[in-house]
Amino acid sequence: RAIEVVHQILWRLLTGVAPGRTRLTLIDPLGRGQHFTSFMALADHDPALVGHRVWTTDGKIEERLGELAHHIEDVLQSSLRDRFERIEDYNEVAGSMAEPYRAVAAIGFPEALSRSSYGHLNALIESGLRCGISTILVCDKSKPWPSDMPAPSGEKVLELEITDRGDWRLM
Fold first, then answer.
1. 133 and 65 in contact (C-beta within 8 Å)?
2. Which positions ≥6 away from 10 have C-beta within 8 Å?
3. CB-based contacts of 130, cutoff 8 Å, min separation 6
4. Rounded to two decimals, what is the model's pTM?
5. Are residues 39 and 11 in contact, defined by beta-carbon separation less than 8 angstroms?
6. Sign of torsion, CA 30 132 99 76?
7. Taking a C-beta distance cutoff of 8 angstroms, is the pair 116, 67 a contact?
8. What is the sign of the dihedral through the CA atoms of 70, 76, 103 and 164?
């Protein structure tokens, strides 16, 4: 059920802005990509919409999260600076230079999450929204996170619990 909710959120992100103005990074180490197959038809039209593929291996996940963390630094230092609070403010005046919105959707963390990937993930959660990057994680509560890499939490994390029946509640 949680994966269905993620799909609905991603489709809403893709259809809620002008065509081509949203980019997805899809991560699925447990399902080897099968949880996001419905999005891969988008790659036939524009591979950049879905980051060319679903990322499944430790090294590629670390690389993609690192690229997104670097993108945040670029947006903060080059686009937002001290002039704009959020990417929406920048995009209103940027015209053709407007930054696309981005979403990272990952199923199965902490599986395939290295220490470096974990650092990048925390950077995305901490500064991503300001830069137009949403992070969506589907985690199995029965699989604990390592003690040195606790599950993300805090004021920038909205945690939902979804039951097998499809009921959900804020945590």
1. no
2. 24, 39, 103, 105, 136
3. 76, 80, 85, 86, 87
4. 0.86
5. no
6. negative
7. no
8. positive
Q: At residue 48, does pLDDT exceed 90?
A: no
First to last CA, the chain: 17
- What is the three-class DSSP state of 46? coil
pLDDT at 74 over 70: yes
For tokens 């291996």, name the residue: 57
The DSSP call for residue 87 is H
In whole angstroms, give the CA distance from residue 36 to residue 51.
12
Asked if residue 29 has a cis previous peptide bond (ω within 30° of 0), the answer is no
Contact partners, residue 7, CB within 8 Å, separation at least 6:
38
pLDDT at 171: 60
Residue with tokens 């039951």: 163
Q: Using CA atoms, how far apart are residues 144 and 137, in angstroms rounded to an integer? A: 14
